[in-house]
Amino acid sequence: MLEISMQNITSLESNAGLLARYMALRQPENVVQAMYVWIDGQQGLRAKTRTLNFVPKSSSELPIWNFDGSSTYQSEGSNADVYLFPVQVYSDPFRGGNNKLVLCETIRYDKTPTPSNTRHTCNAVMDMAADQEPWFGIEQEYSLLDGTDRNKPLGWPTGGFPGPQGPYYCGVGANRVFGRDIVEAHYRACMYSGVKIAGENAEVMPSQWEFQVGPCKGISIGDDLWMARFLLHRVAEDFHVAVTFDPKLIPGDWNGAGAHTNFSTKAMREKGGLAEIEAACKRLEKNHAKHIVKYDPSGGADNARRLTGKHETSSMDKFTYGVANRGASVRIPRQVADDGYGYLEDRRPASNMDPYVVCEQLVRTICLNE
Ligand code: ADP
Ligand code: MN
Ligand code: MN
Ligand code: MN
What we know:
Layout: H1 16-23, E1 32-39, E2 45-52, E3 65-68, E4 81-91, E5 100-107, H2 119-128, E6 135-145, H3 180-193, E7 197-202, E8 208-217, H4 220-238, E9 242-244, E10 259-264, H5 266-269, H6 273-286, H7 288-294, H8 301-306, E11 321-323, E12 330-332, H9 334-339, E13 344-346, H10 355-367
Parallel strand pairs: 1-5, 11-12
Antiparallel strand pairs: 1-2, 3-4, 4-5, 6-8, 6-9, 6-10, 7-8, 10-13, 12-13
Helix pairs in contact: 2-10, 3-4, 6-10
Bound molecules: adenosine-5'-diphosphate and manganese (II) ion (MN) (3 copies).
Adenosine-5'-diphosphate binds next to β6, β7, β8 and β10.
C-alpha cells in the first residue's frame, strides 16, 4: 500500500553542523542561486539549480531552461529535452538571502504543454472566470513515514499498531503526536517563501497531519499548494523523514487523507450568498461522476480506498451536501449558514489530487456552468 518502500537506509547521521559552516559563507552580492522546481510525469516533484547574476523580481525576468524529460516520465530518450517556463518566484527558505525557488511549467519542443502540465488549461479557465473572483483554500492532509523503516508511519511500533484513534487529532504530548518539529519547520518555511499558508493541525490517525493554504485567488492556489508540497518534502528530507500523500495509507479502521477544497465566488461572499452556494451545490451534484474521475490521479481508484462513507467521508457513488455535515460530499460550514454568505467545502478530493485539475473543474462547473 505504501508508495515508498526503501529498506536499509544506511546512514541517518546528521551533517547539519558541518553544513552550516558552508551555508554561512558570504555569498557574492547579486549572485543568486535559483532552484527551478517542476512537477514530473507522475506527480512527483523535481528540482535543479542554476546561478543567476541578478536578483529576479518576477518570473518574467527568469531565463527559460530545460531538463531531461526521459528521466522524469515526460519524454522519449530520442527527443528528451523539455522546457521549463518559470511562472512563480518564491524566496528560498533553505539557502536564504536573495536565493529563489522558481516554480515552472513543463513545455514540449513544439511549445505545447506536456500532458502532465495541468496548470496550462487551469490558468486559461481562471482567466475566463476572473470577473467572478474565485477564491480557494485547500486542506492538505499527509502522513510521515519512519526514517529507517519507510513502510511504517513515523512513531508507530514495529510490527504492531498504536492504540485506536481518538487521542491524536489536534493532540499534544510525545505519546500522541509524532513529527511536530517537521510541521513547525514547514510552517515557517512556507511563510518565509511567500506561500499563503493558513494553518496546521495534527490529524485523527497518529503521524498524520494537515496544513491549509488559502484563501488564494485563481491560479495562485495551485502554485502555492504545489510549492507547499515541495517545501514539505524538502523539510522532511532534512529530518530524514519521508512524506506520503497516499489517500488511505493504512487499510482498516484508520482515517484516510483528503484535500478538502474550499471555494467561493464574489457573489457567495456577499450578503445573500448562501443562495449562490446552494445553486453551486446543485451544479456540482449534476457533475459528480465526472468530478470523481478527476479528484485523484488514478481516475477514482485511489479515492475508492478512502471514500467509504466511514471515517468522516461520503459515499463515492452518491453526491450529498449539507450544513455542518462532515459525512457529505460538500459541506456548508455552520458559520456560513449562520451568516448567510461565505464559501463551500468540497470534501471529495483525495490527498494526492492535483490542485490545478480540481480547481479547474470547480470553476468550469460553478462559474462557467459547463
Ligand atoms: P475545516 O473546518 O474543514 O477543518 P480548515 O480551517 O482546515 O477547515 O480550512 C479552511 C480553509 O478554507 C482554509 O484553507 C481557508 O483559507 C479557506 N477559506 C476560508 N474562507 C474562504 C473563502 N471565502 N473562499 C475560499 N476558501 C476559504
Ligand atoms: Mn481542516
Ligand atoms: Mn483534516
Ligand atoms: Mn475540512
